[in-house]
Specification:
Three copies of one chain form a homotrimer.
Chain A lengths: L5 H6 L3 H17 L3 H5 L2 E11 L6 E7 H12 L7 E15 L2 E15 L13 E21 L2 E11 L2 E3 L4
Parallel strand pairs in A: 1-6
Antiparallel strand pairs in A: 1-2, 3-4, 4-5, 5-6
């Protein structure tokens, strides 16, 4: 089986897992602030709809339309990681429904931000063995992507993001 | 395939994923404080057993027996979310065993509580673009449900919850 | 089906899930500080490679080679849990590739540490019903194990761990 191409290998995974992999790759690309890699997970006219709220009362914050706008927002409009900083968008408790070439995921998400301590100029003092820094949960909510299988590959058509936290717009 | 009913679609998922979906739905219902939705995931005489501790030394805190008691506890005895608040019960690293019509899950859980900042009366000040508020992990432990497949649907028979944190009962 | 042995039952799960179960068992063994249980998940000459950093700039911190060294490090070199303390190594957004008898996982990880409050000598005061203590995220990064199926069981050959936080070595 070793000579199998990656495509053949991945095609053995269940449809549900293939769909879940798309969201897993989204979290990697988002943490890398790699707009191209994020946009590639969408169909050309894909959309990101960002809302405040969880229930019937959700309030639209903004929409990103088409790959170029998604790529630009992720690469240029997100706050860069601080020195020794990184983020982890993590997703949980996926409810996945696959219906032929269409699929939906409902997932919880938590974003964490990690910032490592900087090494003191004269080295680490005695008794400080191990990991130094802080990991902080900074965002939470739900990801609800709708996907379509096109030429054998699952792509995001619309990604609904529901944020728990208040979204501030200066002067509003 | 589009004409498939939801039931047919879900039946294509592996038994392990169907079982995992039950726990995913439990987290949604718990975060909505929706006792009816929680109770519906159980068999009529289902049970929730809540313990302090992780190992051989676990100590029983309380038991909820039958759907009505589970529904009442979740709808009426849980602390309501504060203004602009929400919770996320998240589950991780599931070990799932399916044996015919019986299944067990061993999952880690972390509960997060999110509270959004309230918008100042005269609007957000300059420089405050983005998400405002706090996400805090508040509980952790293990969920260990035992499930049974009844008329094609997986239901929880007993949900063992192991809490890491100390459980306070006033006067005790 | 009840008479099936555990092995037969587990063999019904997809290869991807069997592979994921190995990582789930790793998190359990790590949280129990059970070096023997951790080492048993590896092939006899398995390795753990621990790095600082996430991208091309990763920096090797240390390597554990063979089961005995892995077991010893986990059982004897890790900080023990404090009183009423426990940890949860949790993993997220797995990208799993199975190619015959070989497999890889790329997973995000977050470590949480929970410490329960100690019961006051004269009991809990009025108004303190419920869970008492703190849950804190303390580490984050990526687990990237490579696995091999040997005699029907998936074992870790090399576990690459990428830490986000700075690793302090006194005097360095």
């Amino acid at each position: 089986m070793e000579q199998n191409s990656e495509n053949k290998v991945l095609s053995k995974a269940s449809e549900e897992r293939q769909v879940q992999h798309v969201l897993a790759r989204y979290t990697r690309a988002a943490d890398q602030l790699n707009g191209k890699a994020v946009a590639d997970l969408f169909v050309p006219d894909g959309k990101v709809e960002v809302y405040y709220g969880r229930g019937g009362s959700r309030e639209l914050l903004f929409v990103l339309s088409r790959q170029a706008e998604i790529e630009n927002a992720m690469s240029n409009l997100m706050k860069p990681h601080p020195d020794r900083g990184w983020s982890h968008h993590t997703t949980h408790d996926h409810i996945i429904e696959v219906n032929g070439d269409h699929a939906t995921i409902d997932a919880q998400f938590i974003r964490f931000d990690a910032v490592g301590e900087s090494r003191p100029d004269n080295g680490w003092p005695e008794g400080t063995l191990g990991l130094m820094g802080k990991v902080t949960p900074t965002e939470s909510g739900y990801y609800q992507p709708a996907l379509q299988k096109i030429s054998g590959e699952w792509k995001i058509v619309t990604l609904v993001i529901l944020h728990d936290l208040t979204f501030a717009i200066p002067g509003k």
